[in-house]
Amino acid sequence: MQMISNCTHDAVKKAAKALKDGHLVAFPTETVYGLGADAANEKAVSQIYAVKGRPTDHPLIVHISSISQISKWALDLPEYAMKLAIDFWPGPMTLILKRSELAKDFITGGQNSVGLRVPNQPLALSLLSEFDKMGGSGVAAPSANRFGAVSPTTSLAVEEEIGNLLNQEDLIIDGGSCEIGIESTIIDCTENIPRVLRPGAITHEIIESSIDGKINTLKIKQLLKTSGFFINHYSPKAKVRLNQLAKPGEGFIAMANMPTPIGAHRLASPRSLEDFAKVLYEALRNADRMKLNEVKVILPSGNGLAEAIRDRLNKSSTKNE
Ligand code: TXA
Ligand code: MG
Questions:
Q1: Is 196 exposed, middle or buried (0-12, 13-18, 19+ CB in 10 A)?
Q2: Biggest CA pair distance of the chain
Q3: Is 206 exposed, middle or buried, given 0-12, 13-18 or 19+ CB atoms closer than 10 A?
Q4: How far is it, in rounded angstroms, from Cα 169 to Cα 206?
């Protein structure tokens, strides 16, 4: 594995070529780092599953360079999905759409839908467009962590997570810290009305104002193969417990206006919801780097991004209940 820092245009081309040759490239997006492979290359995609230790029926998001690439991967877009794509791509939003011939079972986990996203990060976008120029159609990329673990938001975190599992020709592109810090909003666009499968920075309110209509908020009974529907996700090794004060020696994460309990290790003091999302995963990772046994987190209140933060933290803590 090679880490590319200070990524030049030539380095981006080298990374696109590595993808085209069937190797893995971990790259920054505005949400979290992704572990990329050529989405049309079954062997390369199977390497993603091996490195992540992820069940193979669990679908991957295909990252495309622009909205013009949608029709390669998806069919019969509802009008509202087109509206969302126009309004929020490039951006922290994944659309689940009816799949085309190109989206094989090894990408979709055998489902008839495919997840698509145009990320809003300069290095990611230039990697995707160089990959297009080489004849590629899209880059499959889950978050670059082991299955169930915390998503990486820095290149160092990627290296710590999976560095020793990558092959010699695989690459990690360093693009600094991710701007948003939690994964994209996933919107199921396979029905008449959109449904949020995973909350994120594109919030319910933002979606409804874009489509000038309501989203479907009825709970689905069927277990969809989405991280959001799995317990034991986004989990550090330390136990995460919510809305309790930390004891001496424990980690503590809360908004800046909450004082640190005596003897606790303050891991983050965000001043806004945006800041909370941005620093959360590194704070949880630091708990593990410091070998803390337990982290107490005071959940942020309110709608919008606060819902997405609570969603992730509720899942990080589930295994401890
Ligand atoms: O922000 C993000 O979305 C990041 C960056 C790298 O783009 N990616 C990411 O990928 O979070 P991943 O694989 O860790 O989470 C994507 C989730 C998975 O839980 C997967 O099951 C779900 O998206 N997903 C993908 N395709 C789907 C589909 N066709 N139907 C339902 N869920 C799908
Ligand atoms: Mg993930």
A1: buried
A2: 59
A3: middle
A4: 41
Residue-wise pLDDT for 205-238, tens only, equals: 999 999 999 998 876 655 454 544 555 688 999 9
Angstrom distance (rounded) from CA 22 to CA 250: 43
**How far is the C-alpha of 9 from the C-alpha of 19, rounded, in Å?**
15
The alpha-helical segments, DSSP class H, found in the chain are: 9-20, 42-52, 70-73, 79-88, 105-108, 122-133, 155-162, 204-211, 273-289, 305-318
pLDDT of 249: 98
H or E element: which one contains 294? strand 294-297
Q: Which of these CATH numbers, 1.10.443.10, 3.30.565.10, 3.90.870.10, 3.40.50.1820, describes 2-211? A: 3.90.870.10
Cβ atoms within 10 Å of 255's Cβ, excluding its own: 17
Determine contact, residues 98/179, Cβ cutoff 8 Å: no
User: What's this model's pTM, rounded to 2 decimal places?
Assistant: 0.96
pLDDT at 234: 86
Mean pLDDT score, 1-29: 97
- pLDDT at 229 (0 to 100): 54
Residue 89 C-alpha to ligand 2 middle, in angstroms?
20
What is the 227 CA–ligand 2 centroid distance (Å)? 7
Number of neighbouring beta carbons within 10 Å of residue 321: 7
Specify whether the CB–CB gap between 97 and 114 falls below 8 A.
Answer: yes
User: Domain map of the chain by residue range?
Assistant: 2-211, 239-320
Ion ligand 2: residues, Cβ under 5 Å? 143
Position in ligand 1 atom list of the atom nearest CA 186: 23
pLDDT of residue 291: 98
Ligand nearest to the CA of 188: 1
